[in-house]
Amino acid sequence: VKDFMAIFCKTLQKYSRNVTSLQELVKVPLRDRYLQISTTAVSVLFTKEYERKDFYEPISDKEYRILILENDLSVLKTNGKAPYSRAVPQCCIFLKHFILDFDDFGKNLPELAHLMVKASERLVTIMCTQLTHVVGKKEDLTLPQAAQAIINAKYLEKTVPVYNQLLTSLGIG
Predict the structure, then answer these.
(1) Neighbour-count burial for 63-86, b at 16+ CB within 10 Å, e otherwise
(2) Pick from 169, 132, 123: which is nearest to 153 by CA?
């Protein structure tokens, strides 16, 4: 429907028709609703990852190959065994897909660059906040589990430039 409306508006514009109000009617509520739904969905995925039992265990070699190498997350490559858990690359993948999906969604909607940057920054904040919240509410947290959570947080922090590079490559950053 969005693509049809965008094409319809462009066609009307070719015939010198003013479609500004029609574009605003379609663009803003649709865009805002899409962002709300997408952000909530990714936020739920973050929480599920943080609540997994293996969140407090380093990633296995098999998962490392699948999640890091096959998803081109070079910032998370390590020499030897990776110290972070499966949640770190998985959250990176969720955020990367969010950015790519939003870019695809907004192809025909003008002036979305600043909104994309704000939405990405918001998700990074949510990612970190939820990590703190989930770990903080765990009552039986052991010292090794706490150390693993800190390691995960440090590696998540290292991934922030990846999102900036992705936005730049899409012509947004």
Answers:
(1) bbeebbeeeebeebeeeeebebbb
(2) 132
Closest CA to 31 of 98, 141, 103, 106: 106
Residue bearing tokens 């010198």: 16
Q: Residue 164 and residue 116: Cα distance in Å, rounded?
A: 11
* Residue 173: DSSP 8-state: -
Tell me the pTM. Answer: 0.75
Task: Find, among 57, 86, 83, 56, the residue nearest to 71 by Cα.
Answer: 86
pLDDT digits (tens, 9 = 90+) for 114-162: 778 888 888 888 888 888 888 888 888 888 888 988 898 888 888 888 8
148 in Cβ contact with 139 (< 8 Å): no
Q: Are the C-beta atoms of 20 and 72 separated by less than 8 Å?
A: no
